[in-house]
Amino acid sequence: DYYSKDGQYLGNDGIDDDKAYVADGKNDDGTFKNATELSVPHSVLLKFASAIHNESSGKLFESFSIASAFNNFVNVKNVKDVTLTTLVSQANSYSFGVSSEHFEEFMSAYNDGGGDSKCGISAAINTLTGGQDYSNGATLWDGGDLLHKSFQGGSKRSWGLGVYEVHGQGMNDFYQKKWG
User: Fold this and answer.
1) 10 Å Cβ neighbour count for 147?
2) Per-residue pLDDT for the chain (180 aa), expressed as one digit of tens each?
């Protein structure tokens, strides 16, 4: 399956091989311009995009930052058996957005051409192709769900290199002001 860098689905080559590519467009003969195979299978690309989609508010910068944080976490933690594939393929304490229920919601939006789903795919492609790190090296992020789970002595922050922040203030501060 082929995508543009902005997350637009371009089509497939008719081969059911679970491969994903990024391309500059489609040629008149049905082939794809400047296609490059991504480092993960198509199924993992969709799960990664789903996790991004479900962890963000759907805003482009936030989605790209969260995608970068996922990648940074995998690369910095260097924990045995922690890969992007395992991180987005099973429920875990790192990401709320990887449950099968959230994946089904994402796929429904994706199949309906939902704009937010394209944003998740675009953010995933940026990260998988070595694009800009929009998180400035962060390995995790704060979100409204952490208010419900709590920080309990800061333990949620202690294992990360940085915390993604919105509008110059910590997300926790933002949500505390909004709902606190």
Assistant:
1) 16
2) 999 999 989 999 999 999 999 999 999 999 999 999 999 999 999 999 988 888 887 778 888 988 998 888 888 766 667 788 888 877 777 776 677 778 888 888 777 766 667 888 999 999 999 999 988 888 877 654 443 343 343 434 333 444 444 434 444 444 334 333
Strands 169-170, 163-166: pairing is antiparallel
Amino acid at 172: N
Q: Which helix (H) or strand (E) holds 117?
A: helix 115-128
Give the residues across from 164 on adjacent strands. Answer: 141
| Contact by Cβ (8 Å): 70, 95 | yes
